[in-house]
């Protein structure tokens, strides 16, 4: 929980509370996902109580920080990313019993791999995130451009209103899979096809 009282005693209590929240969530996820198999729980079916905010931040460069400390264990980030929830523009970690707000600078997921896969005789674009989400580009999971910090950045919709930033090296692979065209305004457009889904991106 975030506490506005800056006295040393209350700060210590907040830290302990945040640590307990993280441990409780991590333990729940480990119990719910035996055998180290990662899956996305049915978050849309859960209606837990709101439990305030936690000092957990996902930075725009993909780093996760807890109480000013960088989280270095990828397995921990993978666990937490599986219960990410977005509601009314705010981000949360969500379990059946609690929903805790966290801070996200841009988007909490990040694509670092782009592939082409064949499904029923058609070629699709497949994107993989650093937390092992696999997204097939289609009408429900489109790639789009959006400005962040005065920079035009590429994203893909993943789930629950949450998007993933397509990292620079992955986007270069995406460009190689498409065609660069010019529109009537002499602007460069990236044309992509994934199955029967076509889209054009201004670059």
Quick gist of this model?
The protein has 203 residues and is of the alpha+beta class. The chain has helices spanning 8-32, 74-81, 168-177, and strands spanning 49-58, 64-66, 69-70, 84-87, 90-94, 98-104, 109-119, 122-129, 134-136, 143-148, 151-159, 162-166, 179-182, 188-194, 197-202.
Describe the structure.
The model is unreliable at 1-16 (pLDDT under 50). Strand 13 (179-182) and strand 14 form a beta hairpin. It is elongated, with a radius of gyration of 19 Å. The protein has 203 residues and is of the alpha+beta class. It contains 3 helices and 15 strands.
Order of helices and strands: HEEEHEEEEEEEEEHEEE
- Which regions contain 5 or more consecutive residues with pLDDT less than 50? 1-16
Radius of gyration (CA) equals 19 Å
Number of helices: 3
In the sheet with the most strands, the strands line up as: 3-2-1-6-5-4
Mean pLDDT: 87
Instruction: Assign an overall shape.
Output: elongated
Distance between the termini: 41 Å
Beta content:
35-45%
Helical content stands at 10-25%
Kindly state the number of beta strands.
15
Q: Structural class of the secondary structure composition? A: alpha+beta
């Amino acid at each position: 929980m975030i506490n506005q009282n800056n006295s040393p005693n209350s700060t210590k209590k907040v830290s302990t509370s945040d640590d307990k929240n993280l441990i409780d969530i991590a333990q729940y996820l480990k119990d719910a996902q035996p055998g180290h198999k990662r899956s996305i729980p049915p978050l849309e079916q859960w209606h837990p109580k709101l439990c305030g905010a936690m000092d957990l931040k996902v930075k725009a460069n993909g780093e996760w920080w807890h109480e000013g400390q960088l989280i270095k264990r990828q397995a921990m980030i993978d666990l937490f990313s599986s219960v990410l929830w977005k509601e009314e523009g705010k981000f949360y970690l969500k379990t059946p019993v609690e929903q805790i707000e966290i801070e996200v600078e841009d988007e909490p997921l990040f694509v670092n791999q782009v592939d082409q896969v064949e499904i029923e005789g058609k070629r699709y674009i497949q994107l993989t995130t650093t937390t092992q989400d696999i997204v097939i580009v289609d009408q429900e999971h489109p790639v789009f451009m959006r400005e962040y910090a005065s920079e035009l950045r590429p994203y893909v919709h993943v789930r629950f209103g949450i998007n993933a930033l397509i990292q620079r090296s992955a986007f270069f692979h995406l460009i190689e899979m498409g065609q660069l065209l010019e529109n009537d305004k002499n602007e460069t457009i990236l044309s992509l096809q994934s199955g029967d889904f076509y889209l054009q991106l201004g670059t």
